[in-house]
Design brief:
The chain has about 260 residues and is of the alpha+beta class. Helix content is about 25%, strand content about 30%. It contains eight helices and eleven strands. The strands form three sheets. Strands 4, 5, 6, 7, 8, 9 and 10 form a seven-stranded mixed sheet that branches. Strands 1-2 form a two-stranded antiparallel ribbon. A hairpin with a 2-residue loop joins strand 6 and strand 7.
Length: about 260
């Protein structure tokens, strides 16, 4: 007898193999880990746009988790407009993650001068005398005092960036307050007469959102985020700017041209 080959239907994608996933190895909630797995399937094309994904029961059996956990993970993808649920029809892929990456972390000087199109800046705190974490002494000499601003950047009704800005108090005294509401930190410094930025540094690291960050960026607890630390040195070798920014991980992209 000829052995029958079982194929997934054109409208439903399924994999009969059960996944051996050890969710306990991470402090990230299980449904968030599962959402990352499903998000990757959409991004890779395993679940292409327009296709119906497996049922909650099928996914729960495949991943060896409770149906409620699968539903929570799918809730996240639905909020990101990657999937849509239709009563009596099923759940379908309607978008891809890369289409959501509308916030690019610039890796060159010119890119640091421009905010994403349509972005607005909300000032949370301003002109507090606070000292930033010291930078590497090889980069430059720290100023005596710094003024601190905390800002939150929004686009399309969603916060995507939380930034702590520390500027040399002497320099900050010459900056119009309005600038902090409309310009990136590097643009503020570049537009200031008499100040020349001769060197700038940027470091990016990955992490997960604590309760405060999750609240401010309106993302789930332990969701992926990217920390960006920046510094700028003036013509006298003084560190006139230190910035610590946090991007929500579901909207950013980092492009580096390799030579």
């Amino acid at each position: 007898m000829k052995k029958e080959t079982v194929r997934p239907s054109d409208t439903a994608l399924s994999d009969p193999r059960k996944l051996a996933i050890d969710f306990s190895r991470s402090a990230v909630p299980r449904y968030v880990q599962l959402a990352s797995l499903f998000r990757n399937r959409v991004e890779s094309g395993e679940w292409p746009v327009g296709a119906q994904i497996p049922t909650v029961d099928d996914l729960a059996e495949e991943c060896q988790v409770a149906r409620a956990t699968v539903r929570q993970s799918l809730d996240l993808l639905e909020e990101e407009k990657l999937i849509a649920r239709y009563r009596a029809k099923g759940t379908f892929v309607i978008g891809k993650p890369q289409e959501q990456f509308w916030c690019e972390v610039a890796t060159d000087w010119s890119g640091q001068l421009l905010a994403p199109e349509g972005a607005t800046i909300e000032i949370l705190t301003e002109r507090e005398q606070l000292a930033p974490m010291p930078v590497d002494p090889a980069i430059g000499e720290m100023a005596q005092t710094y003024q601190h601003w905390r800002r939150r950047h929004w686009r399309n009704g969603r916060p995507y960036y939380l930034g702590d800005v520390y500027i040399d108090a002497e320099v900050c005294a010459r900056i119009p307050k309005k600038s902090f509401e409309t310009k990136t930190s590097m643009r503020i410094l570049r537009d200031l007469p008499g100040l020349e930025i001769v060197e700038a540094h940027q470091t990016l690291t990955l992490g997960s959102a604590d309760p405060q960050i999750a609240d401010l960026l309106q993302i789930p607890l332990n969701a992926p985020i990217a920390y960006v630390t920046r510094s700028a040195v003036d013509q006298s070798g003084r560190v006139v700017f230190v910035g610590r920014g946090i991007y929500r991980g579901d909207v950013i992209r980092l492009d580096i041209r390799l030579k």
